Amino acid sequence: MSNIKSLEIDIETFSSVDLAKSGVYRYAESPDAELLLFGYSVNSGPVKVVDVACGEKIPEDVIAALSDDSVLKWAFNASFERVFLSIWLDRNYEQYFSSYSINEDTVGSYLDPSSWRCSMVWSAYMGLPLSLEGAGAVLGLDEQKMKEGKALIRYFCRPCAPTGANGGRTRNLPEHDREKWELFKSYNNRDVEVEMAIQQKLANFPVPDFLWDEYRLDQEINDRGIAVDMGVVDNAIRFDAFSRTALMASMKEKTELENPNSVQQMKTWLSDRGVDAESLDKKAVAELIKSVPSDVADILRLRQQLAKSSVKKYQAMKNATCADGRARGMFQFYGANRSGRWAGRIIQLQNLPQNHLNDLAEARSCVKSGDYELMNMLYDDIPDTLSQLIRTAFVPRKGDKFVVADFSAIEARVLAHLAHESWRTEVFANNGDIYCASASAMFHVKVEKHGENAHLRQKGKISELALGYGGSVGALKSMGALEMGLTEDELKPLVDAWRKSNPNIVRFWWDVDRAVTEAVKNRSTTETHGIRFRYKSGMLFILLPSGRQLSYVKPRIGENRFGGECVTYEGVGTNKRWERIQSYGPKFVENIVQAISRDILMYAMKTLQHCFICGHVHDELIIECSTGVSVDAICEQMGRTPPWISGLLLKADGYECDFYQKS
Q: Residue 362 and residue 150: Cα distance in Å, rounded?
């Protein structure tokens, strides 16, 4: 019997598939994918590097441990190691490979994630950067990740361009530069050491077991993937190319410009016609169209069509789709470490364009048939039509259907519940429209969606979306208040009216602000509205009702831009750099509400894990199931309130479809 209890693993690999564009699943299944170096430590012992590329063999007990669920396997971004080693093990040591789930599922090519642990998830849980180099630097490790690594990976792990100097080869092997290869082995060794050092530094703050259960479910969903209709994808890419060629020819003919895509050339063309354009971004062009002569507006509309980047999504689908027709690896667990929400990867389901076409199925059929002439005849704006059809390229397995279910106004419900804003809770209890109710509370008149004072609903809606987390006039503007017809003078009164009608939410912001400030100042534990705030070992922790906690690194009292007192902490800022960030009550409330909403979605995913969940977007689940499955039954299960937030009123709505779409 093996004495291996735990393995720390870091691998170096080669594949001709672009990892950044295609993800690890497509990368690993490439016929030329190869394991180069296998760095590992058994039971936290000395690190060893197996030079697989030069013929060294990984010890058999270590190979057996890869599929032994009693052995914990650790890696930084463990999904890469697990997925790549799944394919490698199946190809080279079939007798040791075993998968999980049932035959009807589509996870059969991958090792069970139950016994895999990810130190990147641990770093994210502690509010640290999502890179090995970044986490090591913030923790101040004695041994840091070697900076030569990126150049070595470019040299050995990717195809190279054939040149006269390299003899026309398309790949660099160890014998092509022995000195670099020895350095690469040292780099692999160091990565394992850094990963182990990070875990030692975080040992006093373990990830709770229930979070590893959530990680396992996340990996299962990524392994399952979602089927892609390549007929739609390939034709959409082809149609886009035809459309762009025609649009560019039309633009050149009408403007007589050499390159109508050039911002400078287009600005000069507009200036010659008396139009002064400071910017030609999406928003600026939309504004210009409203005020310029019709012939100029026509050119700007053509420019808008050319600017559509819909084809990039189709290309991303093509890149990520595996040999069995399913795209995998689209969700990064704990990708947003302020709330613990998922981040989108590769195809980015989180920001797909919405569909508003009345004849969605017909437009989709037109693309699938490959008849560009018919498409051109039926639709004036082909780029926009293709953009609206992106979702429809995702399809269930043959004979199955999708059930798409999502929570109704989840953040608004959680915020009202935590703040004890009872009038809002009554709206939810009576299945009312929160936008109408909000407008009614703000303007003291009855507001109905398609009836009395219906024009006020939009003001209620934009206020709800912009003002719940301390937003003011700037938040309303960024939500498009001026574009929807509100005047500058209306904005401040709108903010005041919303806050006046939601006094408990406003009080909640500042109660949280005081609790956080007191915890950091006094290095103590405080509590308000059922949320606890604790300062410990140079960290601020916010303990959520689910038992999960949010982590803020090196909090301290600082000064805000108004000269007042505020809490600051270290984190990844808006420019993607590690820096000191200012925060205040409403912002912490936003983190709390979004984190609890994430935990509620996770609770629903666990409730529905007997189903084939193949995707999730914000507060929505995409489930692949047989045609007889009841939408109402799925929504009932999804809408169950977790026991840790008793009294919260949840509601899930859903619909079924033969391809993914917005209802």
A: 48
Instruction: Report the share of the chain in percent with pLDDT over 90.
Output: 81
pLDDT in tens, 279-298: 888 888 888 898 888 999 99
Cα distance between the two ends of the chain: 55
Q: For residue 441, what is the DSSP state?
A: H
Residue type, 613: I
Nearest to 428 by CA among 663, 652, 654, 662: 652
Residues 53-68 have a mean pLDDT of 97
Q: Which helix (H) or strand (E) holds 582?
A: strand 578-583
pLDDT digits (tens, 9 = 90+) for 378-402: 998 999 999 999 999 999 999 999 9
At 456-494, the pLDDT tens digits run 898 888 898 899 999 999 999 888 888 878 889 989 998
Residue whose structure tokens are 């998922």: 342
Distance (Å) of CA 528 to CA 170, 481, 510, 534, 642: 62, 33, 10, 12, 20
The β-bridge relationship of strands 531-536 and 525-528 is antiparallel
How far is it, in rounded angstroms, from Cα 600 to Cα 650? 9
How far is residue 362's CA from residue 643's CA, in Å, rounded to a whole number?
A: 45
Confidence of residue 1 (pLDDT cuts 50, 70, 90): low
Secondary structure, 3-state, 183-224: HHHHHHHHHHHHHHHHHHHCCCCCCCHHHHHHHHHHHHHHHH
Nearest by Cα to 629 from 616, 646, 612: 612
Q: For 569, what's the count of Cα atoms within 13 Å in the CB-facing half-sphere? A: 26
Instruction: Decide the pairing of beta strands 72-75 and 116-118.
Output: parallel
Buried b (16+ CB within 10 A) or exposed e, 406-420: bbbbbbbbbbbbbbe
Tell me the one-letter amino acid at 553: V
Strand order in 652-657's β-sheet?
Answer: 612-617, 620-626, 400-407, 652-657
Residue-wise pLDDT for 420-443, tens only, equals 999 999 999 999 999 999 999 989
Q: What is the Cα–Cα distance from 114 to 116, expressed in whole angstroms?
A: 6
Strand, helix or coil for residue 344: strand
Q: Which amino acid is at 544?
A: L
Give the distance from CA 372 to its chain's centroid: 33
Amino acid symbol at 274: G
Helices 434-443, 422-429: axis angle to 10 degrees equals 140
Q: What is the largest CA-CA distance in the chain?
A: 84
